[in-house]
Amino acid sequence: MDTIAKLDLKSHIAELEVKGFTALPGVLSKTQIESSKRAIIARVEEKSGKPVDLITGKGFEGGWRYVPHLLYDDEVFEDILMAPKPLALLTYLLGESCLLSSVGCHFKGQGGEPLLLHSDNANGIPQPFPSYAQIANINYALTPYSKREGALVMVPGSHRHGRHPTPAETQLSGDNTNPDAVAMDLAPGDCVIWHGNTWHGSFAREIPGIRMNLAMYCCRQYIQTQEFHPGNVPQDMLNRHTNDERFQVLLGAKMPYPWDKTGPKSGLLSKSPRGLFD
After folding, report:
1. Which terminus of the chain faces fewer neighbouring Cβ atoms within 10 Å, N or C?
2. CATH homologous superfamily of domain 2-269?
3. 154 — phi, psi (to 5°)?
4. Which residues are paired to 140 by β-bridges?
């Protein structure tokens, strides 16, 4: 609570409780935005073998593609991961022992289909969901967000349902669009963080150009991460964060499992979280 008060986040905590999500304006600097975009475009162009024009969308046609495993592509993603305000809200939702599950981009051109409404509790978590978060997501806008531009969509209060939406509740197109769905109108550098139970998706992009985001998906320590970091983190990255314990924890440095032939890691087991905020 001291950190939340110091960072002036009390109203955002209230929104997380009532709505299941909250938006933070102006989290990223212009340098961070441009560096992130360059790194993501480089990955897309490397895979496709052709240049992409962000304004016209030329070189990337037909809906959206998920670009995974970005953390190691550029140091800017390390800086964004440790941004104080989103990290404080992440800690409120998942505790200090939470893990980075994945870093990726939903790279979206004109056309295609919307990303249907869903809960992030999709990796085997049974229903009904508990009221506390087991998953949380931070979605950074790298380009402008509006409905026509293919914005992120949230359903306020849906985290209280404790379940996935029904097929009829997932819809985001035409007359079948869920009436409770709200488009997140964001400027580049803003972010939205949400409770893993909260229903969300995104509209299809209606106009030329590319919509880019940076999605930092996180989970409690006992949840299987989407990307596996322990033992795989580049040494130069570890060297940059030798004295940053929180960064190391996010990448699994204190994971007590799995065991190798030597058996239980007793030192780490003794530090396992025992409360909502541990």
Report:
1. N
2. q2cbj1_9rhob like domain (2.60.120.620)
3. -125, 155
4. 191, 214
Distance of CA 81 to the CA centre of its chain: 10
Positive or negative CA dihedral for 155, 27, 213, 150? Answer: positive
What 3-state class would DSSP assign to 32?
Answer: helix
Phi/psi at 78 (5° precision): -65, -45
Evaluate whether 123 touches 176 at the Cβ level (below 8 Å): no
What are the sequence ranges of the domains in the chain?
A: 2-269
Q: pLDDT of 125-161, one tens digit each?
A: 999 999 999 999 999 999 999 999 999 999 999 999 9
Three-state DSSP state, 245: helix
- Give DSSP secondary structure letters for 15-78: HHHHTSEEEETT-S-HHHHHHHHHHHHHHHHHHHSS---TTT-TT--SSEEEE---GGG-HHHH
pTM of the predicted protein model: 0.95
Q: pLDDT tens across 9-63, in order?
A: 999 999 999 999 999 999 999 999 999 999 999 999 999 999 999 999 999 987 8
Rounded to whole angstroms, what are the CA distances from 161 to 93, 129, 158, 223? Answer: 17, 8, 5, 21
Q: How far apart are CA 218 and CA 256, in angstroms?
A: 18
Joined together, the tokens standing for residue 14 give: 């209230």
CA distance 30 to 114: 28
Inter-CA distances, 219 with 56, 133, 167, 173, 209, Å: 36, 8, 25, 30, 32
Q: Please give the structure tokens belonging to residue 172.
A: 């985001």
What percentage of the chain exceeds 70 in pLDDT? 100
Instruction: State the Cα–Cα distance between residues 96 and 129, nearest whole angstrom.
Output: 21
250: closest CA among 120, 90, 118?
90
Write down how long the chain is. 278
